[in-house]
Amino acid sequence: VGPFHHLTFLTDYGLEDSFVAACHGVCAQIAPDARIIDITHLIPPGDVRRGAAVLAQTVPYFPPAVHVAVVDPGVGTARRGIAVAAGGSVFVGPDNGLLSWAVTEAGGAAQAVNLTNSELWLSEVTPTFHGRDIFMPVAAHLACGAALASAGDEIDVRDLVTLPAPVSRVRDGEAEGEVMTVDRFGNVQLSITKSDATRIGVLSGVSVLVRWGHRQLTVPYRETFGAVAPGELVAYADGSGLVSLAVNGGDAAQRLALPPGAHVRLAVARRS
Amino acid sequence: VGPFHHLTFLTDYGLEDSFVAACHGVCAQIAPDARIIDITHLIPPGDVRRGAAVLAQTVPYFPPAVHVAVVDPGVGTARRGIAVAAGGSVFVGPDNGLLSWAVTEAGGAAQAVNLTNSELWLSEVTPTFHGRDIFMPVAAHLACGAALASAGDEIDVRDLVTLPAPVSRVRDGEAEGEVMTVDRFGNVQLSITKSDATRIGVLSGVSVLVRWGHRQLTVPYRETFGAVAPGELVAYADGSGLVSLAVNGGDAAQRLALPPGAHVRLAVARRS
Amino acid sequence: VGPFHHLTFLTDYGLEDSFVAACHGVCAQIAPDARIIDITHLIPPGDVRRGAAVLAQTVPYFPPAVHVAVVDPGVGTARRGIAVAAGGSVFVGPDNGLLSWAVTEAGGAAQAVNLTNSELWLSEVTPTFHGRDIFMPVAAHLACGAALASAGDEIDVRDLVTLPAPVSRVRDGEAEGEVMTVDRFGNVQLSITKSDATRIGVLSGVSVLVRWGHRQLTVPYRETFGAVAPGELVAYADGSGLVSLAVNGGDAAQRLALPPGAHVRLAVARRS
Fold it and tell me: With bands split at pLDDT 50, 70 and 90, how would you rate the model's confidence at A247?
């Protein structure tokens, strides 16, 4: 693999401090011609699962790249740093599951190394800022064409930490899933794919019965939120091919009190 | 027109999700050498008018570029996607008025097309993410030198949706306008130009009578907010040449309870 | 010095308006091949001290660059605009102390000019937006190789405005400092260096007594926050080599009510 023209960068570092920029600076020193595309740096602090979901949903739209992701509450402890080759790209970050969904999305891990070669790190490594001191410099070297194997000891890809896949099953004409993400607009994205919805007869035009906790609602299933009146609830397949709930011009997550991780069931609504 | 070295990008997508990055990725695949300058992605969700104002005030400072703007509450409905040539640049986005003020600012629409040529789109188009699936790929192709006419059917520029211009008139020694934008600092930008202010005698050094609703205030008109004491109100012509109200070191919008769209009158204050 | 491939950019302009993008556009027109790395634009409005701290802590990680920083409550008043050569880089911004800590960090000012040559500015300069109209165009010209002396009249580097250095001293086995920054995670960064901590026996593994106001706490001093249980307080040397207080998985600034500027004393905790 490599060299790569592009790196991507996803963290929970926020935008008010200098953390992101210091990493950009490190990359600019090692790989002055590489380009960094920031995915987001507003992953809630330490929320590995959301980081994994956002990364996995974005990766398909990039050219082959070195993807650097750092949501790393265990920084400086025994958790490993890894680089994983998958689908023509390389993923660099902590071995805490953050990269796992994106690696699967990219076709699965072909090769992986434990980042043990300190020659690719900054000369001084601090225990709490591996994004700047280890992950970004390693990634920049890989972007410049360094071999994956040069970054450290090869590890069995089956030993990589993976996050459990979100609940998603179809049974008795009902699809069950969980809330994957809530976006800026308050749209509630479920782990139920458009094709699973199709299998149980949930097609554009029908009404769907949505059940969670002790609540249930009947909601129109349409192509887009603009198909219902402002302020109305609607279910639709979103830009990632996942069934989502929205309020046209409003905030569905707030209206329904549905946070990430909540379990939801979906079926075609039957007339009583 | 084209090819273009630069694209600009303005949306209401926010920064916490992967929406912006997915669009950057699409551009990187089609036009790897083009550069994207993000204008802002924090337009309040669906606020077409603010998007139009911010875009129009920024465009004069860019080199010729493909300007992609997406504030698109009607995505997936009958509203058209358009590309409009104006002043050596091209504007790409929904035909809902978002682009209209910037197009006017750039010298007016020279040519426009309805984005009907799906060969310039991503191979799979989702109904709710035209920014990623249609607007950005079309823009990237245009940046690479594709002819505007290749993006779709030509439409009469007089048929483009335009936002009504903000109220702005001078009468009987008084200038009337509305609040265009409130910025991060709480500065209240009015749709009254510096030159209209000059016409009614509002020049640096005078006091101005500001009236809105049932309220009125006398405020010094100065070159800059630093010309008054901290905590004091001041009127001045801002970086876009529009009369604005500020509190030195404070938040004028909050102090005056003046939201976007509010009507305001301005005149030289007379001694009673 | 120069030409430079990179510019960096730090302001209090925020991300919701077009201020940052207009500056990027100006740079793209003058120096189309230069790259801008945004450090942050979320310095609290007018907070020169925080801007200075963030800039100084980031600069060591960049290649030689033109560093543009604008936190400028005095814009349009008598304060000077300056460009300062230091350590192979150039710093451009208002002469209000904002640049001073970074200049010191870079090795001290070698040469400085008052930005008086309007030929390097935009043709029209507004009194409230020198970032766009003066600082960025000057910086872009310097990036293209213009001589520092071409930007204006040379000034004695001893006449540059400097911020007072933060309190930081060691006395009687106790280190005294102040809160430099609070970051996104709520980590409280003190102006006490790791090496000063070492001098008074504060090494990884000991307990430290932290005193401020009328409060005091005993906190473990460790390599990283992950070394204590979730929810526990910890002291450590952060990525900038400064002693910091954190809550593993939580917000130390909130828990301790320690804002920037607060005075704090640190010593090895003795058993009573």
Answer: very high
Instruction: Spell out the residues 6+ positions from residue A79 whose beta carbon is closer than 8 angstroms to its own.
Output: A72, A94, A95, A96, A161
pLDDT at position C85 over 60: yes
**Which chain C residues are closer than 8 Å to B249 by Cβ?**
45-46, 73
Write the burial class of residue C133 (CB in 10 Å: 0-12 exposed, 13-18 middle, 19+ buried). Answer: buried
- Which one, of C96, C54, C82, lies nearest residue C142 by Cα? C82
Give the pLDDT confidence score for residue C76 in this predicted structure. 81
Question: Whole-angstrom Cα distance, residue C93 to residue C132?
Answer: 11
Q: Is the pLDDT of residue C272 over 80?
A: no
Q: Rounded to 5 degrees, what are φ and ψ at A173?
A: 70, 15
CA distance C19 to C42: 12
Residue numbers in B near C26 (CB within 8 A): 61
Q: Which pair of structure tokens corresponds to residue A2?
A: 């490599």
- Confidence tier at A51 by pLDDT (50, 70, 90): very high
Residues contacting residue B222 through CB under 8 Å, at least 6 positions apart: B204, B205, B228, B234, B235, B236
Sign of the CA dihedral with C29 first, then C31, C33, and C38 last: negative
CA–CA separation, C121 and C133 (whole Å) = 6
* Among candidate residues C133, C136, C135, C86, the one with its CA nearest the CA of residue C112: C86
Amino acid at position B44, single letter: P
Task: Specify the amino acid at residue C176.
Answer: E
Q: A174: part of which helix (H) or strand (E)?
A: strand A174-182
pLDDT tens readout for residues B157-199: 999 999 999 999 999 999 999 999 999 999 999 999 999 999 9
3-state secondary structure of B161: coil
Cβ(B245)–Cβ(B255) below 8 Å? no
CA of B226: which chain C residue's CA is closest?
C74
Closest CA relative to residue B258, chosen from B228, B237, B235, B225? B235
- Helix/strand/coil for C210: strand
- The secondary structure element, H or E, covering residue B255 is helix B252-256
Look at residue A231 and give its three-state secondary structure.
coil
Q: What pLDDT is stored for residue B77 in this prediction? A: 81
Map residue C184 onto helix, strand or coil.
Answer: coil
Q: Which of B97, B162, B166, B53 has the alpha carbon at shortest distance from C17?
A: B53
**B33 at interface of A, judged by CB pairs closer than 8 A:** no
Closest CA to C247 of C186, C203, C204: C186
Chains that touch C (3 or more CB pairs under 8 A): A, B
Averaged pLDDT score across all residues of chain A: 96
Q: Is A95 on the interface with C (CB under 8 A)?
A: no
Query: pLDDT band for position B76 (50/70/90)?
Result: confident
Which stretch of DSSP H or E encloses residue B182? Answer: strand B174-182
Phi then psi for residue B158, to 5 deg, are -75, -10
Query: Please, what is the average pLDDT of chain B?
Result: 96
Query: In 3D, which of B141, B135, B257, B245 has the Cα closest to residue B192?
Result: B245
| C13 with B249: Cβ contact below 8 A | no
Q: What is the pTM of this model?
A: 0.96
Which is nearest to C70 in space by CA: C106, C86, C87, C46?
A: C46
B24: contact with A, CB 8 A cutoff = yes
- Can you tell me the distance from the alpha carbon of B15 to that of B37, in angstroms, rounded to the nearest whole number? 15
Q: Which two three-digit tokens encode residue B81? A: 């996607």
pLDDT tens digits, residue range A180-201?
999 999 999 999 999 999 999 9
Q: What is the pLDDT of residue C271?
A: 64
Q: Where are the beta strands (DSSP E) in chain C?
A: 6-11, 35-40, 66-70, 81-86, 89-94, 111-114, 153-155, 168-171, 174-182, 188-193, 207-212, 215-220, 233-237, 242-247, 263-268
Give the separation between CA C250 and CA C234, rounded to whole angstroms: 11
